[in-house]
Amino acid sequence: MKRFMNFLDDRVKASEIFRLVAILLVMDCVAVGVLLVAGCVEMERVPVEVSHPTLENVFAGMKLVREHSVENFTLFTEYSTSYDTSRWRITGSKEIRIRVWPSGTEAEVMIEHVHIDCSIRATQPGIDGLIQDSMDDSIHGGLQPGFWITPDYPYENHFAIEGFSQWLREGWMYFWSGYGYGRERTVRLTEEALKQEGGAYASQISVVYDLLIRYPGEEWWHTRCLMEEILIPLAKEEAGEKG
To answer: pTM, whole model, 2 decimals?
Structure first.
């Protein structure tokens, strides 16, 4: 009888050991799965944009001028800043200057509406494409349908871009919330964190011009739309500069 009871005890102990091993194996599988999923998300990268024209001022006042073929004439767009772009920072307040004029046409040309976005280009998908600031410009009321532009009277505007905008703050919080899967840490929003953690490397200026065109002898205006995207590289931190 004693031998039989010992045999039962051994069976129970073996069963408990097998059950414990099974639980540990399941936990290991779950942990490995979570790490693999998190690893896949963390390793995802957005390719660096190389096709857009770049505004890189060696010194203040340098300009990026672009030519666009619109119907039978050329439309020039010009972009510049009031300071050299080696000081361009996402978290700093800044501005982009814009001028637009037509050339080589007898048509009347007006800009009916302009929409401008400043977004971040980055290698991290949660930061890339994040809009930082936006602006719209049009004539409000009156008989004139738009801004009349000629080589002597170009369209001019200054797009003042907020540094720590609400969009930027909310986007950074969403990035560190982990899109629903969560993260083990959060990082304070700074210029260096945007570069190191978010992979930010440039600001993208996206502009949509709604044009009104009317040729001699025509009574009515017709429309054309022009979209342009340019990049402004971020300032490279000098020794001793952080944040």
So the answer is: 0.77
- Distance between CA 42 and CA 22 in Å, rounded? 30
Which pair of structure tokens corresponds to residue 7?
């045999």
Maximum pairwise Cα distance, the chain: 117
> Which amino acid is it at 4?
F
Is the domain 63-233 a CATH 3.30.160 member?
no
Q: Which residues contact 144 (CB under 8 A, 6 or more apart)?
A: 110
Domain borders along the chain are 1-43, 63-233
**DSSP helix/strand/coil, 52:** coil
Structure tokens, 139: 């004539």
Q: What 3-state class would DSSP assign to 135? A: strand
Q: What is the pLDDT of residues 217-229, one digit of tens each?
A: 999 999 999 999 9
Instruction: Please give the torsion angle defined by the CA atoms of residues 36, 168, 156 and 115, in that order, rounded to the nearest 10 degrees.
Output: 70
